[in-house]
Design brief:
- The structure is a single chain.
- By secondary structure, this protein is of the alpha+beta class.
- It folds into two domains: 18-145, no CATH class; 159-254, Homeodomain-like (Arc Repressor Mutant, subunit A, Orthogonal Bundle).
- It is 52% helix and 13% strand.
- The chain has helices at residues 5-10, 18-23, 58-61, 104-119, 124-145, 153-157, 160-171, 179-186, 190-201, 205-222, 227-233, 239-254, and strands at 26-30, 41-46, 49-54, 70-81, 96-99.
- The protein has a five-stranded antiparallel β-sheet with strand order 1-4-2-3-5, with helices on one face.
- A hairpin with a 2-residue loop joins strand 2 (41-46) and strand 3 (49-54).
- Helix 4 packs antiparallel against helix 5.
- The chain is globular, with a radius of gyration of 19 Å.
């Protein structure tokens, strides 16, 4: 059940990621041929340092060229929140990059991943997937905590007032959200909230809500859930209204 607006407003600290990660599972697969061109999650050595590069969207990844300073590729993987076709990637940064040794929480997980790859023990693939989940969560924490994203979902989650609203939307997409309700959760005026949200997230609150709902609907339909049930789950009045929204969304993406 969704927390009350008062509870969300009064909380001095709250979980900005759990509701998002409950809605979209992290998928990870090791690229055994170690070929960066096939992957969107890369760890490499360059100039004596270990670097991590993550491209949430394949469409962005296609335009990427590995730095000339690269000495050795240590890990290549495909890592996605939801799936590679999920529209939720549109609101992620184009590139997430970090020097691993500068963040102890990332370095410790990377060490375990390298150990799994090197020794190939029983259950290696399962352990690898789970470690990648932890690594991606810690990477998002790092970006959110240090306010490293300029625009998009991660930038919004880095802002306390906007993060309260986004976490509430992620937790209860079926709630009849309106601009006034979102602004109240953020403890801001409607105009101030709408302006700040667009600056930080790169789209209006209404467009973000629609994108999240449709991304969640696409994921649940791909899992075989009935259209009628999914419509209720993501905040549409009927299966017909959700079907129309999905069709309109696909047409806009094709343009």
């Amino acid at each position: 059940m969704m927390r009350s607006e008062k509870e969300m407003s009064d909380a001095s600290s709250f979980d900005r990621l759990s509701s998002l990660l409950e809605a979209f599972r992290i998928e990870a697969q090791l690229c055994t041929d170690n070929e960066p061109s096939k992957c969107n999650f890369i760890i490499y050595e360059g100039e004596g340092k270990q670097q991590l590069l993550y491209y949430p969207s394949l469409s962005c990844r296609e335009h990427f060229v590995l730095p000339e300073t690269i000495d050795k590729v240590l890990l290549c993987a495909q890592v996605y929140l939801g799936s590679k076709d999920s529209q939720i990637h549109r609101v992620f940064p184009r590139e997430i990059a970090v020097e691993i040794d500068s963040e102890a929480s990332l370095a410790s997980i990377c060490h375990l991943i390298f150990e799994e790859i090197e020794f190939q023990r029983c259950g290696r693939d399962a352990v690898f997937r789970r470690l990648c989940e932890v690594l991606l969560i810690r990477l998002l924490r790092h970006y959110i905590g240090n306010k490293l994203a300029d625009v998009g979902m991660v930038a919004g989650l880095s802002h306390t007032q906007l993060a309260k609203v986004m976490a509430a939307v992620h937790e209860a997409p079926e709630f009849p959200w309106r601009l006034e309700t979102m602004a109240d959760v953020a403890c801001m005026s409607r105009t101030g909230f709408a302006t700040l949200f667009r600056q930080r997230v790169g789209m209006t609150p209404g467009n973000y809500l629609s994108l999240f709902r449709l991304s969640l609907a696409q994921k649940e339909l791909a899992e075989g859930k009935p259209l009628k049930d999914v419509a209720v789950r993501v905040g549409y009045s009927s299966a017909t209204s959700l079907s129309r929204a999905l069709h309109k969304h696909r047409q806009s993406e094709a343009v």
